[in-house]
LysR family transcriptional regulator
Amino acid sequence: MGRDMNKTITLRHLRCFMAVAQTRSFTQAAQRVYLTQSSLTTTIRQLEESLGLRLFDRTTRQVSLTAAARHFQQHAEKLLRDFDMLIDDTRALANGYSGHLSIAAAPSIVVTVLAPALVEFRARSPGVSVSLRDAGSAEIEHRVLDGKVDFGVCSRLQNHPELEYRPLLRDRYGVVCSADHPLAALERPVTWDDVSRYRSDWVGLASDTLVGRVHKQILGDDAPSAYLEELSSTSMLGPMLALGNRFSIIPGLTQVAHQLDFLRFLDMAPPHIERELCLVTRRLRSLSPAASTLLACMFEELTRFDLPAGMDLVQEANTGDLFSPRTPA
């Protein structure tokens, strides 16, 4: 009887369930799946009847998930992602490819590690096409969550419970400034008192990047009005700092990746600030063989890379235990 009932549950039921679970609104969910609200309600009722339990508690103001629905959501989401990736890969095969990879990473990782790793990856997997996207940590985390990329490399910004973060390297922050800035004349590490003295010269980063969030944490209550210029990406720092009498605080790898050697990069006195760059994947999901191959090429490139001072590979990355999903403790 149970198996017969399972046959009545379709992808349509799962997609409708996920739409309601994510929006917590039957009205918004109906718009997302292009159904009338009555059709969506009927579909959810069919799913509940097939499962023999209630999935949503509805009031006039809100929709909430039952305990059973929260459990069901985790597995339904994984099933739909796997199905969608299967369809994408099959279509790629039909077009003459052996598969397609989509990767999102911090700009500094794309430039220094991922792009160079593609040379070896192309030799090992000549039939696999690759899309690389550089982005801030918030966007990368969401793209991994939504199944839009196979994996990401970024800092742990939102710490999503549905994501797995595996540390790769640690990178220390320093001051980058134009040669004419007073900080550049210091013959010692820059202190936080020095930073405070020239706060009005600080070029900030948007808070949807880890660097921007670090800036906000440093500035505390003064953050909203602390600097006169804010950028959406570190890729804009070079032209802005080249205007003169400006500085920012960035990780060492960012200075290397954006070729800011025409600027001064200054060490900071303790307490030091570090970021941790992680391999980001969906929890309990294995990487595809192609993704594992690219990751191996990337790690080989990382171990060959001449790491700047203040940057270290995390010990866990050296174990090579990066390719299989972790099981819950």
Q: What stands out?
A: Residues 90-169+275-318 form a domain with the D-Maltodextrin-Binding Protein; domain 2 fold (CATH 3.40.190.10). The mean pLDDT is 83. Residues 67-94 form the longest helix (28 residues).
